[in-house]
Design brief:
Blueprint: H1 2-26, E1 30-31, E2 33-35, E3 53-57, E4 66-71, H2 80-87, E5 100-101, E6 120-124, H3 149-162, E7 171-177, H4 179-186, H5 188-192, E8 200-206, H6 221-233, H7 241-244, H8 255-258, E9 266-271, H9 275-282, H10 294-298, H11 305-321, E10 332-336, H12 347-350, E11 357-358, E12 361-362, H13 363-371, E13 378-380
Family: Belongs to the pectinacetylesterase family.
Subcellular location: Secreted, Cell wall
GO molecular function, one term: hydrolase activity
Length: 396
């Protein structure tokens, strides 16, 4: 009998070990989706008319009244055809969205995300194609498209404030990557104004500092993208008035014209050789009909000496468009010399062994130091290829 019990005990121990190992291999648990079905009646909908979505993981302990709200990226749609394509996938319809796990700035491990791991963590899904700025009452006839990104943003914020309890927040960080990183800048002051003066509110933009620069043919291709987005989505009225009172609306999609007008502390994380911007701002397809930049755009190591000179000039222009270091103690910056795009959402670039370093500091630590006022983190890297810790990253 004793031998039988011993065998059962050993079997249970082995089973427990196997379950633990399987759990470790599976990685972080999926975070369920919150569908705001009541938003449809308010017209706060994705491009296809489906309800907006966010993912929510509740805070605990010392983080119970703190919030990080992270907005998903994914480019823009600037005409009806592009928006119609997005209707058929998760970039324009919540019908195609699935649960996902949190990592990086949204990660739940104290070791991997020491400053934000036990906060209320939210990922706002992106399904409007305008960095949450659009609001057109009329529905696009024929293709049945809704341009309502700003309504989506406001409705999700209202739900977080009134249903989830974000109105009681002590500390809040609005963040985002790529088009979501741009949204973090465009909505920064508006987000700040949702809270009482006693709440500490800051904003963090990852890969959202898109440059108003000339492409390799000498044209301002990026301006044409934003002009079409603003016109199609009716964005002008939802861009920061502090900028639109001085500049044409499409220029107020560029952070370099908005950031100097912000009242709220901001942290800018960006690669100086941003892989998306090299493909779409510096060397977009219309500017490169012979595809001489095709390989260089895919891998910076494939660039010719003359192309590298052009990239170094792009970096110079990018740095010149940033706020000046030391200009404001509330401004944080981490500008590495990587050929990457979005570095806060994945653990290997946020805070892990081998993560990118600037001045011996990792991204997650720099952002945490800045948010908690431990250090004025304004770090700008030396030119490519000086940084061996860089990782290429192009996902949102």
């Amino acid at each position: 009998m004793a031998a039988s019990r011993a065998r059962l005990s050993r079997a249970a121990a082995v089973l427990g070990f196997l379950l633990l190992a399987a759990s470790a291999e599976a990685g972080p648990a999926e975070v369920e989706m919150v569908f705001l079905k009541n938003a449809v009646a308010k017209g706060a909908v994705c491009l296809d008319g489906s309800p907006p979505v966010y993912h929510f993981s509740a805070g605990s302990g010392s983080g119970a009244n703190n919030w990080v709200v992270h907005m998903e990226g994914g480019g823009w749609c600037r005409n009806t055809d592009e928006c119609a394509v997005r209707k058929g996938n998760f970039r324009g319809s919540s019908k195609f969205m699935r649960p996902l796990s949190f990592s990086g700035i949204l990660g739940g491990s104290q070791k991997s995300n020491p400053d934000f791991y036990n906060w209320n963590r939210v990922k706002v899904r992106y399904c409007d194609g305008s960095s949450f700025t659009g609001d057109v009452e009329a529905v696009e006839s024929g293709k049945n498209i809704y341009y309502r990104g700003f309504r989506v943003w406001r409705t999700i914020m209202d739900d977080l404030l009134t249903v989830r309890g974000m109105n009681k927040a002590q500390n809040v960080l609005l963040s985002g990557c790529s088009a979501g990183g741009l949204a973090a800048i465009l909505h920064c002051d508006r987000f700040h104004d949702l809270f009482p003066a006693t709440t500490k509110v800051k904003c963090f933009s990852d890969a959202g500092y898109f440059l108003d620069g000339k492409d390799i043919s000498g044209n301002n291709y990026a301006r044409s993208i934003y002009k079409n987005v603003v016109t199609l989505h009716g964005s002008a009225k939802n861009l920061p008035a502090s900028c639109t009172s001085k500049q044409p609306a499409e220029l107020c999609m560029f952070p370099q014209y908005v950031v100097p007008t912000l009242r709220t502390p901001l942290f800018i994380l960006n690669a100086a050789y941003d892989s998306w911007q090299i493909k779409n701002v510096l060397a977009p397809s219309p500017a490169d009909p012979k595809k001489t930049w095709a390989q260089c755009k895919l891998d910076i190591k494939s660039c010719s000496p003359s192309q590298l000179t052009t990239l170094q000039n792009f970096r110079t222009d990018f740095l010149a468009a940033l706020p000046k270091p030391g200009q404001s103690p509330s401004l944080g910056m981490f500008i590495d010399s990587c050929n990457a795009h979005c570095q806060s959402g994945a653990q290997d670039t946020w805070l892990a062994d081998g993560s990118p370093l600037v001045n011996k500091t990792q991204i997650g630590k720099a952002v945490g130091d800045w948010y908690n006022d431990r250090e004025v983190s304004q770090k700008i890297d030396c030119p490519y290829p000086c940084n061996p810790t860089c990782k290429n990253r192009e996902d949102d």
